[in-house]
Write a structure and sequence with these properties.
Blueprint lengths: L3 H5 L6 H11 L10 H5 L1 H5 L4 H9 L3 H5 L12 H5 L6 H14 L5 H13 L8 H9 L13 H13 L2 H4 L7
């Protein structure tokens, strides 16, 4: 429920909705707050994540409240809400857009920052180099680490160079050596 002080304090601002529309998510304004997105969300069944509430706050222009909300990061981006939306709103894509704004505003969750750092270091967001998984792979007759970026140091250096050049390292506050 929205706090009456937000209404009285004139914190509503259409700038966030305008930004979303300019970025190609203009259908967001067609949202009728039916709740289909929230009702069908797998993450919402087990967490405090409420898609409809997030979209409503974005439409009202509650920028800081939306971008700083930790529940923004609970979406698994499975696309179920988007597939079932009666207004054909690209909900999942809009959530990703809001996350991008959130990171730019300095609100990235520590776990996501850690995944980003892992990606910069290894070329993988998933810790495939964990010792127990390596041993399991070896027991199955596989190489300890899948033949991906780890197997191609030159490719990893190129990825790291691109990430640094595009400012990704700075965005996720990565200060390590590549």
């Amino acid at each position: 429920m929205l706090d009456r002080r937000l209404i009285d304090g004139n914190k509503f601002n259409q700038k966030l909705a305008d930004e979303m529309a300019e970025a190609g998510y203009d259908r967001i304004r067609a949202c009728i707050q039916c709740g289909t997105c929230t009702a069908t969300c797998p993450a919402g069944r087990r967490t405090a994540y409420r898609t409809r509430q997030l979209i409503r706050r974005a439409l009202l222009g509650l920028r800081e409240e939306v971008l700083s909300d930790p529940t923004l990061w609970l979406c698994t981006t499975c696309g179920t809400c988007q597939e079932r939306c009666p207004r054909k709103i690209e909900v999942t894509d809009a959530i990703i857009f809001l996350r991008n704004l959130s990171v730019q505003a300095g609100y990235m969750q520590p776990g996501h920052r850690g995944v980003s750092h892992k990606f910069i270091k290894t070329g993988h967001a998933v810790p495939i180099d964990d010792e127990k998984w390596s041993k399991l792979r070896e027991s199955l007759g596989l190489s300890p680490i899948p033949p991906t970026v780890h197997s191609y140091p030159k490719a990893l250096r190129e990825v790291q160079k691109l990430l640094k050049k595009t400012g990704f390292n700075k965005l996720v506050e990565y200060e390590g050596d590549e």
